[in-house]
Design goal:
Length: about 300
């Protein structure tokens, strides 16, 4: 499998520039995937540089880079600090995260991430975990399902959707993506079927993988691990992710609660670098999945 078959790296040059890489520095790619970003980081490092890649999806292991400067850790990035310290790494010069679902995950029908294929409801990034989309659809209470769709998809008609789901599963379990799509079809907005379904699948995927809580854990750990002047490059794909990233960079917390010391200085670990970066039309024409990407760059404040 080639890198591009697995996943085309999004905003590659912007990320490399944003990291402001030191050739002998230590860097982390917490969403290794197809290894596209990682390979480019390695190209900028000398023999004293080091790169650590994280990915909880076991399929990503197939893209392992044979390079003595590279270490692959098959874990969720919410365990970033734990596993870096296990390998004797207490601080790093830069961290990259691309929070999107890989092309490989979308295109592998049996993973259940895509609205395009009829497959068992799954959506687990980590195939060893127990909770799947099948469990959520068939076992969550009405109140829990409404909360998932309202919170993670911001769908106002969530109670009607959930009523249809619970009525259907009362007759027989909902096993596949196409079964779910069929149940929800009466609620599709005209001319917005794919967008509506994408929101539903997004909500299920976030719940299955605990994505927003993992993101919060990761951001807090990243700010602790970065050396003063170290860089953080973060690519988000929907407003829920981007809002957490933006607030954390701006205020150091997720409620965007600005706290100042007695001299009026904002108490936070990071400062924003540059403006929000989005893909060019040229990049989107080559990689349509980049269309909703937003890159924010931050730097650890030097005290």
């Amino acid at each position: 499998m080639t890198q591009n078959d697995y996943h085309i790296p999004v905003l590659l040059n912007a990320c490399i520039n944003g990291l402001n890489i030191k050739p002998d520095g230590t860097y982390v790619d917490v969403t290794f995937g197809g290894g596209g970003h990682s390979r480019e980081i390695l190209n900028t490092l000398d023999q004293n540089g080091r790169l650590i890649g994280f990915d909880q999806d076991s399929d990503a292991k197939e893209n392992h880079i044979q390079d003595n400067r590279f270490l692959f850790i098959p874990e969720n990035f919410k365990f970033l600090k734990r596993f870096l310290r296990f390998h004797g790494i207490k601080e790093v010069d830069g961290i990259l995260a691309d929070f999107g679902v890989s092309s490989h995950q979308f295109n592998t029908a049996e993973r259940g991430f895509s609205i395009r294929f009829d497959a068992k409801l799954d959506m687990r990034m980590d195939q060893t975990q127990q909770l799947s989309a099948h469990d959520i659809i068939n076992q969550y209470s009405e109140e829990q399902l409404i909360s998932v769709f309202r919170t993670y998809a911001e769908i106002k008609t969530a109670p009607k959707l959930v009523d249809a789901i619970t009525s259907a599963r009362g007759i027989k379990p909902i096993e596949t993506t196409f079964q779910l799509n069929s149940i929800l079809e009466p609620f599709f907005p005209k001319h917005k079927t794919n967008k509506f379904l994408a929101q539903i699948y997004q909500a299920l995927r976030i719940e299955v993988n605990g994505e927003l809580e993992a993101l919060k854990d990761f951001l807090q750990q990243s700010s602790d691990l970065l050396k003063p002047g170290g860089r953080l490059c973060l690519i988000s794909y929907h407003s829920l992710e981007d809002r957490l990233v933006k607030h954390f960079i701006r205020s150091g917390n997720f409620n965007d609660d600005i706290k100042k010391d007695m001299f009026g200085n904002v108490q936070k670990p990071l400062k924003n670098i540059g403006k929000l970066i989005v893909p060019t039309e040229a990049e989107i024409s080559v990689n349509n999945r980049a269309r909703s990407a937003k890159l924010r760059i931050a730097e650890k404040i030097q005290l």
